[in-house]
């Protein structure tokens, strides 16, 4: 992880949707172990500071004027992943936005 170069936008929604597509594919051929079906798990490593959902290039700067849209998009993706009975965990790294990660994780926990 130390060798990863930081920079550029980080549209979390896009990453979640791509991860969800992978879980759908993996679920089609889900392995089993002693009769237990092993379901895919998404582990999201994030600073909790997603950039604008539709930003394709430019600096990795969070635009507060788009936060409502970003939160809505991320919440939609998390609900879709959770609704497909896949596990999803968020791990904060660096100077991460704890409230964003807690808010996003609460979407999953709210159904318990």
From TrEMBL:
Give the protein name, as stated in the record: VWFA domain-containing protein
- Check the record and name the InterPro entries matching this protein: vWFA_dom_sf
The source's superkingdom equals Eukaryota
């Amino acid at each position: 992880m130390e060798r990863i170069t930081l920079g550029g936008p980080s549209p979390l929604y896009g990453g979640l949707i791509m991860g969800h597509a992978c879980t759908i594919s993996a679920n089609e051929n889900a392995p089993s172990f002693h009769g237990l079906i092993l379901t895919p798990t998404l582990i999201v490593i994030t600073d909790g500071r997603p950039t604008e959902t539709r930003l394709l290039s430019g600096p990795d700067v969070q635009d507060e004027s788009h936060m409502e849209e970003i939160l809505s998009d991320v919440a939609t993706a998390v609900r879709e992943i959770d609704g497909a009975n896949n596990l999803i965990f968020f791990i904060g790294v660096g100077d991460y936005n704890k409230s964003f990660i807690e808010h996003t994780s609460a979407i999953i926990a709210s159904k318990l």
